[in-house]
Structures are given as structure tokens and as C-alpha cells.
Specification:
By secondary structure, this protein is mainly alpha-helical. It is 77% helix and 4% strand. A three-stranded mixed beta sheet has the order 2-1-3.
């Protein structure tokens, strides 16, 4: 790896502040997207789950219809057997044969009643499933419409911001190369520890940007001299003087335009 060219403290501060401006713009772009990707993913997962439930209910309907068909065939078979036994009764020669045939007839009648009971249970289940499936399909339709809208919204935002974000990420990497590794590491650590991602801020109204704690005049003079890296004792942020900040913001306008 090529060794980074040694630069002055002021140049380091300018490079750091430029990097902060770029990274803040990337943060802003990602904020515009907000929770949309997660919302799209959640809706996709929800619809997948609803479709699986729908498939499960449809499979149960199929099984119930097959069950009805099976029981109807069983009834038809039992009726045929009952009819045959009725014919056999005319040929009996003794009470033992008669009782045996009557017992078989009674068994077939019980089989018919049992099958009819099962058919009624299947039909009740089908009615319940029809209601559940109708509600599920309506829910899937509503969620799918919502998903389509969210996807369209996300695509539009990505079209607007994706190119700019990629360009800024590349610029961020280039600006990082200008700064020594330990300073970049410190910058990234501060960024990760502060709520708004601002690791380097200008002095505003005698205080660190976004802070209410006054910075002593001597420290302000040291910051304005640009001879060393100075951090805010309360927030840990790196501080720069307002003039430097204004100059760099003006300079960076061309990158963001």
C-alpha cells in the first residue's frame, strides 16, 4: 500500500470536515429512504405467510372433498350390500342364517349413518374453510396492493438517490485516503457514538456545534490557529473554527450539486 503523504494539521482538519460533509449527505440520502426497504421486506414476508396459510386451507378443502367422495362411495357400497342381504333373506333355511343376515344388514345401516355423519362434518368444515379462505384472499389482495405501492415508492426513491449515493461513497473513500489511519479510526468511532453521526463540528455561539457548553476563549483561539486536533471534552467531537467550516461547505457545494 502506498504511504499517505504527510499533510499539515489544517489540511487534516479540512479533509476531515469535507469527509464529514460527504458522510452526512450519505446519511441524509439513507434517511430519505427511511424504513421503506424494511416495510417492503415485512410486507413480502407477511404475504408469503398468508399464501402458505391459504395453501394449507386449500389442501384441507381438497382432503374434505376427497373424504366426501370416499364416504359417498362407502354409502353406495353399503346400500348395495344391504339390498343383497334383503334378497338373501328370502332364501334363509333357519333362524341362525336369518339372524346372521339381519345382523349384517344392521351393520350396513350403521356404516351408512356413520358415513353420512362424516359427510356432514366434512361439509361443515368446507363452509368454515370457505369463509376463512375468502377472508385470507381479501387480506392478501389488500397487502399486495400496499406492497405494490411501497415497491413503486422505493423504486422511485432509489432512482433518485442510488446514483448520488454510490458517487458519494466513492468520494468518501477517496477523502479517507488523504487522512492518516488512526485519525480516520477516531473519526469513525466518534461517528458511531453520536446520535446524528457528526464527528467533526464547527464552533457556534462560543460552543461546540449542537452543544450548550461554552468553550473557553483560550481553547477557541487554539482551534482557530489550526495547529492541533482539539476535541470537545463533553461530546468527544473534533472541533473546527467557523471560518474553516464555512470555506469547506462552500467548496463542497459543487460535489453536492
Amino acid at each position: 500500500m502506498a504511504k499517505k503523504t504527510e499533510i499539515s494539521v489544517e489540511e487534516k482538519l479540512r479533509a476531515l470536515f469535507d469527509l464529514q460533509l460527504i458522510d452526512s449527505r450519505i446519511d441524509q440520502i439513507r434517511s430519505i429512504r427511511g424504513e421503506l426497504p424494511l416495510e417492503v421486506e415485512d410486507l413480502e414476508n407477511e404475504i408469503t405467510g398468508l399464501n402458505k396459510r391459504l395453501e394449507g386451507h386449500q389442501e384441507e378443502i381438497k382432503e374434505s372433498k376427497e373424504g366426501i367422495k370416499f364416504e359417498e362411495n362407502s354409502i353406495a357400497t353399503a346400500k348395495e350390500s344391504h339390498k343383497k342381504y334383503a334378497s338373501d333373506l328370502k332364501k334363509v333355511r333357519n333362524n341362525r342364517e336369518y339372524n346372521a343376515i339381519v345382523k349384517e344388514q344392521e351393520f350396513q345401516e350403521l356404516e351408512i349413518k356413520l358415513s353420512e355423519k362424516k359427510i356432514n362434518e366434512y361439509k361443515t368444515k368446507l363452509e368454515e374453510k370457505d369463509t376463512v379462505i375468502k377472508e385470507l384472499k381479501e387480506k392478501i389482495t389488500v397487502r399486495s396492493t400496499h406492497l405494490k405501492s411501497k415497491r413503486s415508492e422505493l423504486v422511485d426513491i432509489l432512482k433518485e438517490t442510488d446514483k448520488e449515493e454510490k458517487n458519494l461513497i466513492e468520494k468518501s473513500k477517496k477523502f479517507e485516503k488523504k487522512i492518516e489511519d488512526n485519525l480516520i479510526a477516531a473519526y469513525k468511532k466518534i461517528r458511531s457514538n453520536v446520535r446524528n453521526g457528526l464527528a467533526i463540528v464547527p464552533i457556534e455561539r462560543n460552543a461546540s456545534g449542537g452543544s450548550y457548553f461554552t468553550i473557553p476563549p483560550q481553547v477557541q483561539m487554539d482551534i482557530a490557529s489550526r495547529q492541533k486536533i482539539i476535541t470537545d471534552e463533553y461530546s468527544g467531537r473534533i472541533l473546527v473554527d467557523p471560518t474553516l467550516a464555512e470555506e469547506e461547505m462552500e467548496k463542497m457545494k459543487s460535489i453536492f450539486s
